[in-house]
Description:
This protein is α+β, with helices and mostly antiparallel strands and 351 residues long. 37% of the residues lie in helices and 20% in strands.
Amino acid sequence: xxxQLNKDIWMDEHxxxxxxxxNNQYSIGLAYRGNVIRKKKKKSYHIxxxxxxxxxxxxxxxxxxxxxxxxxxxNKLSLDFFDQIGVIAPHSKHVLLYINGFCKGIYLELExxxxxxxxxxxxxxxxxxxxxxxxxxxxxxxPKRKLKTDLLEGYTLKYGEEDNLASLEELIIxxxxxxxxxxxxxxxxxxxxxxxxxxxxxxxxxxxxDGFIHNYALYLNSETNTFEITPWDYDGTWGRDxxxxxxxxxxxxxxxxxxxxxxxxxxxxxxxxxxxxxxxxLDNEFTVETQADIVSDLFEWLKPYIHLDPFLNxxxxxxxxxxxxxxxxxxxxxxxxxxxxxxxxxxxxxx
Length: 351
């Protein structure tokens, strides 16, 4: 099985395998997943259930190595944080993975954001579109500032009909071509603006540099016929980048960056809504007092298993040190964002 995968680590085709969870056994398809992580010793996996078709309400799951994250936890902490502030996010849990009897270490098991997740959450049916690369910036221009040849470049339909991609094209066209009064009038008919602004506040707090033009999925709610947005791949957060290097607390601006965000925050009432949402989060969820116990509990659960991971050269004390890094980041980032909020409020009044 692993020999087949290692013949070409970039192959996305799944190979047959058997997954054992407790006393239960399942036929699955197994493949490597991710980009940079495929070159590492500890790789991430994508699992598709074949027989039975679904397990615990899921047809597919992701096993993330979290190799560059000292804490192994930033992704989970971020997704749980979005859940706390009211943004749909995949659930996750740490597992110990064995392959052919050999321990491969601690992995983060992640829900796939798909129709099965919608069913589990009792959410309306709807198309799901993944932002699969940095071209997913809601713009007519690529990150290299060249005109795109395809408005849907950077997006992949995960679930739904191809025709539903036209709704995303409409959103991108509106964002880039409508005059201010038309945009203000029509945008809430295609985008759940309050939900988007809450997501924006979450990205800004956790400081995911890639989160504005990548690392998200769009869900077209069939009841409201508006897009909602969800986070994905948030290991480069809470004071470190995706390579595990420390990031200064003021690296990402309070307004984030992408074309849609810039357009929304041009309007005073949307900007005020964003400021109110962010202010509430800074007072309640994004605080050391709220997050410290969450981090501690998670790390205490991980500590007994750290020494079993053959790819990790760290001790339980490293987790204690990393808790200090995360808490220091929250404190500094919170203060920075509150200062920036005051500036935005002054712009609102005097601008």
